[in-house]
Amino acid sequence: MPRTIALLMAGIVGCYGLNWFLSEFIEVVYVDYLNLIGLSIILAVGLNVVNGLTGQFSIGHAGFMAVGAFVGALASILFTYGEIAAGPLEHAGLAQFLLCLLFSGVAAGVLGVVVGAPALRLRGDYLAIATLGFGEITRILLTAQDSLGGPTGLKRIPKMPLLPGASGWDGGTSVFWIYLFVFVVIVLAVRLQRSTFGRALIAIRENELAAETMGVPSARMKVVAFVFGAFFAGIAGALYAHYQHSVRPDDFTAVRSIEVIVMLVLGGLGSVTGAVAGAVVVTLLPQLLRPIEEALGIDGLSMVVYALLLVTMMVFRPQGIFGQRELSLKLLRRLIPGRRKESP
Amino acid sequence: MTALLETRGLTIRFGGLCAVDCCDLSIQPGQLFGLIGPNGAGKTTVFNMLTGVYLPSEGTVHFGGKLVNGRNPVQVARMGMSRTFQNIRLFDELSVLENAMTGAHQHARINLFDSLLRTGRHFREEERQRDKAYRLLEFMGLEDRAGLPAKALPYGHRRRLEIARALATEPKLLCLDEPAAGMNTGEKADLAKLIRRIRDELKITVLLIEHDMKLVMGICEVVQVLEYGKTIARGTPAEIQSNPRVIEAYLGGG
User: What is the rounded distance in angstroms from the CA atom of residue A211 to the CA atom of residue A198?
Assistant: First the structure.
């Protein structure tokens, strides 16, 4: 527990430092990439608990993100302006902002229970289809809500709260907030994995009948995993809304869910490090390929190359970049030649 | 003395096939009970009904005086019945130690937030599970492999790890489903010793399904024989060995 508080403090200081460094020295466009990567990491690390650790194939993650985004955005708009109306953007208050994020996470988490409890009784393909359906239903229901702006969604969502001492540059606090939650989700995911609950989840993935026979309540544990993923997808949605200042239901199509799956599979299902690596690669790759596309003047080339890279990867390394391994001091030590100690 | 496990008229039908027909079992606390029979006799199906995997079509299962029918495997495990599988079902990607620790999960008295926030209770629970699992690995002679992934274990050790994992649930009754399958003579002799020690030292009642007659006759006190789902004999090993009906079932009617 004291370590947890110290760790959180270190995270806050670290993210503040990162935010300051970037806003002083780095161009805004690169900061934008970094923020998108951060949001992807939160989504991927959360979903990895469901798809990677527990082995339950869910492809409706965007649905939870959508709910989090709309709940957080609406709460934030009402807190800051008192009504949905036009006018210049303002910064959300710190307490209100945190409360909005909590609302988003809890709303998505509760929905995780409601959807997960029945859907997780399904296996394999059937679960995948049910979760896909959930994601699409969520998006379509949001599109139909005129009070939430219908297909055009919510606009004029307040900026994230200003940090003391940080520059007033637009989006100058987003790196801090997004990466603070990147830090939180990674720490919690690793802790979950390395606990009796994490072992129970992996046991369910490896052999559900044996897990149940050992007294692991698989139905309940699967919902726990699902809620963990949903909660952080909700938070990611709220951060996304505050970062973009507007959300539309169509920001959360099935394509986004599948993108998160691609991150996991590419990085290595079941590995937190893999989820992070996958999030970085999948978010960055299309951006990096775009200049090449423009230079050659062939439209859509970047998507072709991107798809080819994914196919190549799956052919030659189907277990993903990291497989199920984690980046740890032990692994680093093994990779550095010369200093190898014979382990017993 | 009341039986630890008692079944009355246990029957299950899969469509038109009656896999187990009116099976009565009665296992006393502290007994080493053998259930034998030729292939397809319905032994594993009996296990699956006892442990809540299958719901019996007819008949009752009582464990420690409580009705088992209608409970799922998790609830049965929590009542104090644990088992191994004929086709080994380990958690391959977990280490040997972690496999055994998973058996101890059901006794964890912590919630998810203890683990996420790393409270003192989390660390105490981890230590409890680690100690328990390690002691059981020592008992089964696997302690020097604790750190290996379970999938890296050779066959005989995998069977032992399944037993260690089942023991970690602190069962009153341990059901072993053909633990000696695929083992050589030396490994079988070691296994027989281990099974006896589980009963004598850990005071756990054992229900053993096995093909190997020598193993069963050598260690079990009571043996029951199934053929085509029906009980054809019950008694001490000596009685069973001289029972003409059993000899016929095993050697074929002539």
Answer: 12
pLDDT at A170: 53
Q: Which one of A194, A214, A269 would you mutate to disrupt binding with B, by most B Cβ within 10 Å of its Cβ?
A: A214
**pLDDT over 60 at B8, yes or no:** yes
- How many residue contacts between A and B have a Cβ separation below 8 Å? 100
Q: What is the mean pLDDT of residues A219-243?
A: 96
Helices (H), chain A: 2-25, 28-48, 61-81, 94-119, 124-143, 174-193, 196-206, 208-213, 218-244, 254-267, 272-296, 301-316, 329-335
Q: Is B110 in the same domain as B229?
A: no
pLDDT in tens, A100-110: 999 999 999 99
Is pTM, for the whole model, over 0.80? yes
CB < 8 Å to A214, chain B? 77, 82, 102-103, 105-106, 165-166, 168-169
The nearest alpha carbon in chain A to B78 belongs to A215
B105 shares a domain with B31: no
Q: pLDDT digits over A109-147, tens only? A: 999 999 999 999 998 889 999 999 999 999 999 999 998
Residues B183 and B245 in one domain: yes
How far does the CA of residue A287 sit from the closest CA of chain B (Å)? 35
Indicate yes or no: CB of B82 within 8 angstroms of CB of A214: yes
Last residue within a domain, chosen from B152, B183, B198: B152
- B57 is a domain residue: yes
Tell whether B148 and B200 lie within a shared domain.
Answer: no
Q: Verify that B82 and B174 share a domain, yes or no.
A: yes
Q: What is the mean predicted confidence (pLDDT) over B172-190? A: 92
Most distant CA pair in chain A, distance:
68
Per-position b or e across B216-226, b if 16+ CB within 10 A of its CB: bbebbebbbbb
Kindly state whether residue B194 falls inside one of the protein's structural domains: yes
Between these two residues, A97 and A325, which has the higher pLDDT value? A97
The shortest C-alpha distance from A175 to chain B (Å) reads 24
**Residues B37 and B77 grouped into a single domain:** yes
Same domain as B68, residue B123: no
Summarised one tens digit per residue, pLDDT across range B58-92 is 999 999 999 999 999 999 999 999 999 999 999 99
Q: Which of B101, B123, B152 is the last residue of a domain?
A: B152
Please tell me which of the candidates A3, A199, A215 has its beta carbon nearest to residue B169: A215
Q: Which of A214, A218, A224 sits opposite B103 (nearest CB)?
A: A214
Residue B2: per-residue pLDDT: 83
**Cα gap A176→A169, rounded to integer Å:** 13
Q: Which residues of A touch B90 (CB under 8 A)?
A: 206-207, 210
Q: Does B48 touch chain A (CB under 8 A)?
A: no
Q: Do B93 and A324 touch (CB under 8 A)?
A: yes
Give Cα separations from A108 to A62, A232, A259, B5 (angstroms).
11, 8, 19, 46
- Contacting residues of B for A201, CB less than 8 Å apart: none
Mutation choice for A interface testing from B118, B130, B162 by most A CBs within 10 A: B118
Q: What percent of chain A has pLDDT over 70?
A: 93
In a domain, B159, yes or no: no
Phi, psi at B117, each rounded to 5°: -95, 0
> Considering only A33-37, A261-265, A291-295, B17-21, which range has the smallest mean pLDDT?
A291-295
Q: Are B127 and B75 in the same domain? A: no
DSSP tag of A281: H
Contacts A215 to B, Cβ<8 Å: 74, 77-78, 103, 105-106, 169
**Which residues does residue B25 pair with via DSSP β-bridges, in sequence order?**
B7
Domain extent at residue B186: 5-87+169-251
More confident residue, B160 or A327: B160
**Is B162 contained in some domain?**
no
**B46 and B19 Cβ atoms separated by less than 8 Å:** no
The per-residue pLDDT of chain A, averaged, comes to: 89
